[in-house]
Amino acid sequence: MAIWGRLSSRTIANANHMRKRMNQGFINPASGLSPALNRGTPLFSDGNRRHLDSLPRNRATLSWFQRFKSTLAENQQDSFLSSDSDEDHQSLQFPGGKVSYTSEMNFISESSETRVPCYRVLDDDGELIPDSDFQQVSEEVAVKMYSKMVSLQIMDTIFYEAQRQGRISFYLTSAGEEAINIASAAALSEQDIILPQYREPGVLLWRGFTLQEFADQCFGNKADYGKGRQMPIHYGSKKHNFFTISSPIATQLPQAAGIAYSLKMDNKKACVVSYIGDGGTSEGDFHAGLNFAAVMEAPVIFFCRNNGWAISTNVSEQFRSDGIVVKGRAYGIRSIRVDGNDALAVYTAVSAAREMAVNEHRPILIEALTYRVGHHSTSDDSTKYRKLDEIVYWKNARNPVNRFRNWVQSNGWWSEQQETQLRNSVRKQLLEAIQVAEKAEKPPLSEMFRDVYDYPPSNLEEQEKHLRETISRHPSDYPVDIPV
Amino acid sequence: MALRNIIGKRIGNGIGLVGRRSLSTATSDVENRNAKSMNLYSAINQALHLALETDPRAFVFGEDVSFGGVFRCTTGLADRFGKARVFNTPLCEQGIVGFGIGLAAMGNRAIAEIQFADYIYPAFDQIVNEAAKFRYRSGNQFNCGGLTIRAPYGAVGHGGHYHSQSPEAFFCHVPGIKVVIPRSPRQAKGLLLSCIRDPNPVVFFEPKWLYRLAVEEVPEHDYMLPLSKAEVIRQGSDITLVGWGAQLSIMEQACIEAEKDGISCELIDLKTLIPWDKETVEASVRKTGRVLISHEAPVTGGFGAEISASIVERCFLRLEAPVARVCGLDTPFPLVFEPFYMPSKNKVLDAIKATVNY
User: Fold this and answer.
1) Where are the domains of chain B?
2) How far apart, in whole angstroms, are the C-alpha atoms of residue A464 and residue A474?
3) Binary contact (A259, B126; C-beta < 8 A)
């Protein structure tokens, strides 16, 4: 009892001291390098820095990048919790690196005193924050980004209506997350491979997947690459390096590590980008994916869209950590928190993450704070579990599309006339695409039995034959629009 | 060595395992040139060497595979082919399979090891929802056909709950993957190479009891044995016995004993459980009129149930007795009760007699 009493009082005494150090432990472009990590090696080798310097940047890039430090365990002389006691010279040679001793009993705090700040460049009104770090976007790219964000909005509105009218069976909007969708895609190379969750159709849109291709998938017709086998919104396109969406949450993360490892083996100057939501970070596959990527030194960006809600489960019921960004360090992964409703910040963060992933063969974790303005899907009514005020606030005051438009307009790159023209044109194209998709033939019945394996085994041939016999006896039991 | 001691003890108990089990590959599908006597783990090891040697895009990975693996199947691979192609992974089965799917999706041969089949369950979602549906859900735009998941399975005499299970039936309910189980070293080498090179994801269960115990002449060269093709390994006329993996040697002993009583047994090695070779089994049952299925996994919901139902569907009027199943009992795999749990030679023999005399 006595010893525990003594130790606990010391623990309390140390707590404040420790918290101060904890706060300094993060790599933070806004506040500068943690003094505790001063002895580490610089983040970028000279070669890499040269490469990065070639990027057009808004202000002295070198100083920004120099603030980063490696988080590799072997480069850490001691932990940021180590004391200045006389035991510093002693250390433990442990598999995985040297650990210093301390006679002070310190439990690492469960959280830092202040939350990890959120990197942004545009303020709520879309005005550039003076002295911000950001990568300049050309007029052409900016206008394309804005146009695609608007297209995504229109796509969501019209497909949502189509579902409500019973023309498609299901839909899921990206409302509120348009900046994440488009800006992250814009910052990548087309060779980079996407492993989506399911709220990232904007990435496909950016890469040139047409409105017709979206409509064909949602209607599950003959032109759907997935041959009508999956629910609407489960897009996939080989030519766009966009792996087919599957409904299970987080399963794509360990796969992303495997794909990224293959890119590295092939010396490709490309990375994998795997998206996930806040809820998905609770899955075992989140842990598996991040840990494998870190250990295998795989060039993959884990992009977490923290939109506050996993269907009806609020982040406060999802985890007790300061969001997702802090989880990176536990895996030895460099991470950043970014304002997901600031397209310019997302673009800049993803550009930098990509450079690090590709040039240094390492995973990067990005947590984008945003908000799911729409319901989880067309099967959900989110007003049953969250306040309308909250939705309206994010929809209006924090709207990422409006914010980016303000910035684009302030540069003189966009006008009201262009806005009207764009909206009308996309709306018209989409309505036409829907009409075409709706009228198109469904995939033939034979497609039900193909692609289970590379060839149909005898049991499937037998079942197909039996099914066809049944259909000929009971044709009225079966949908007429599927060619038999 | 411990394994041999246990086996010795089991022989003493009259369980019916012989010191060296070798189910010869009597068929002519493997040329016998340059054959060398080796055990099952060495045959697996040789197949992995060949797989890595013949395809620069082949990778071997899993828990502890770098130093050769807990069963020595990956011995020498890392030294020969380098750490980039043969490597340890973190201890995380869902990660191993997920990573393997990604690797395979990029056109690589991803040969993943799950250390024991008993630990494959964390990877169940990746196998069932991801690997098995990867091709189908994408309309054949993407596939992970280069994925092979190896896992030691089955009883070993002292494995208890978590080093003895035979989980094959779970995977036989999953369209899109193949499930393959070899019975001997020569079969293991040829089947594993086929699995690795098959354009579909495969779960390959290796009978761990046979790793050291089963010794057979194995050709040195690169050869493949066909998947989804069963093999009649013993001709007979009174009853058909169907099995796979380690259980076949128990069944073979029962066949030999039954012969002394004048019962002629036909023994079939199914080899591939899905998609399985119904035709070979059906043809045999049409000849014998009787069928017995035997596996170590619990009888209820085991793959024997599927074979039984299919044979009844196809051969109902030809059957002269109910389909017999001699399987593991419906308990968790029990340590000290293993001799009671197992579908032993005499249990099989009793069932043969009961079926023939029905």
Assistant:
1) 18-219, 231-356
2) 15
3) no
